[in-house]
Amino acid sequence: MAADRGAGNSTVLLILSVLDQGERYGYELIRELERRSEKVFQFQEGTLYPVLHRLENQGYVTAERKTGENGKERRYYRITPAGKKQLAAERESWARFSAAVNRVIGGEQHAFS
Amino acid sequence: MAADRGAGNSTVLLILSVLDQGERYGYELIRELERRSEKVFQFQEGTLYPVLHRLENQGYVTAERKTGENGKERRYYRITPAGKKQLAAERESWARFSAAVNRVIGGEQHAFS
DNA sequence: TTGACATACCTAGAGATTCTAGGTATATTA
DNA sequence: TAATATACCTAGAATCTCTAGGTATGTCAA
């Protein structure tokens, strides 16, 4: 709805938040987001991989192909300084958005760090 | 991201929330959402009107054409019982979604009514 | 009275995002 | 050896929002 880009790209917020805690590979991200959200987020691979590629093109993450401890090839993603900046912006955006929704629907109001 | 339809349709939640407090016409909804969200939501007419028509087709709202006190033709929308049910579901969905985002990004956790 | 502006509605087409539904390949386990 | 989990990928469909127009009326100032 303009003005802020709203939710919609909460996907990027979620991915960068996890990567901010350390490198991850795509498949791992999907399972970790499912676990940490208690099944609320169940990203499809067809959703996640294209987003990761886009983030790489935008310079928010870098990728490195490595063989995991189980012998399988994986692409590990790390957040870049530009990605950290973007993450801060998205956190701010989410805080504003969710507070606004809560104001409109009459829910309680909160401050996020 | 499936499992819940996530944010995305927060537009419907917002519209039904306002209509739950009384009938409104489209143009009025845009300005009221802008005001109540403190400028965070700035819906375009090209976004809002098609959504209202969809809600009408789905039976969540009814519309009635009336001439306003300023002499202009307006379409007033009212929420239906089915719309109230849908609103309750969307509130629940939003509560789950926003709590999950906050868990993942490390923000505080809240309970919504 | 004429022009500008706000009100009030509408739609077609473009753009962005996510899902569906496939595909490939390797390692483990039955 | 067959099934399953891991791990990556993409094309096309579906959905939603935005852009960018359009129409029409009422008010107010020049």
Task: Summarize this entry quickly.
The structure is a homodimer of 113-residue chains. Chain A has helices spanning 10-19, 26-36, 45-57, 81-105, and strands spanning 24-25, 61-67, 73-79.
Write the layout of secondary structure elements.
2 copies of one chain form a homodimer.
Chain A: H1 10-19, E1 24-25, H2 26-36, H3 45-57, E2 61-67, E3 73-79, H4 81-105
Antiparallel strand pairs in A: 1-3, 2-3
Helix pairs in contact in A: 1-4
The structure holds a DNA duplex (30 and 30 nucleotides).
Describe the fold and architecture.
The structure is a homodimer of 113-residue chains. Chain A is globular. Helix content of chain A is 52%, strand content 14%. In chain A, 32% of the residues are buried. By secondary structure, the first copy, chain A, is of the alpha+beta class. Chain A has helices spanning 10-19, 26-36, 45-57, 81-105, and strands spanning 24-25, 61-67, 73-79. Chain A is built from 4 helices and 3 strands. In chain A, helix 1 (10-19) packs across helix 4. In chain A, strands 1-3-2 form a 3-stranded antiparallel sheet. Chain A has one domain: Arc Repressor Mutant, subunit A.
Q: Strand count, sense and closure of the main sheet of chain A?
A: 3 strands, antiparallel
Main-sheet strand order of chain A equals 1-3-2
Q: What is the CATH T-level topology of chain A?
A: Arc Repressor Mutant, subunit A
Beta percentage of chain A is 5-15%
Estimated helix fraction of chain A: 40-55%
Per DSSP E runs of 2 or more residues, the count of β-strands of chain A stands at 3
What is the top-level CATH class of chain A?
Answer: Mainly Alpha
Counting H and I runs of at least 4 residues, what is the number of helices of chain A? 4
CATH-derived architecture of chain A: Orthogonal Bundle
State the CATH superfamily name of chain A: Winged helix-like DNA-binding domain superfamily/Winged helix DNA-binding domain
Low-pLDDT parts of chain A are: none
> SS-based structural class of chain A?
alpha+beta
If you average the pLDDT of chain A, what whole number results?
A: 89
User: Oligomeric form of this entry?
Assistant: homodimer
How many structural domains of chain A?
1
Instruction: Please name the two chains that share the biggest interface, counting residues whose Cβ lies under 8 Å from a Cβ on the partner chain.
Output: A-B, 43 and 43 residues
N- and C-termini, Cα separation of chain A? 24 Å
Order of helices and strands of chain A: HEHHEEH
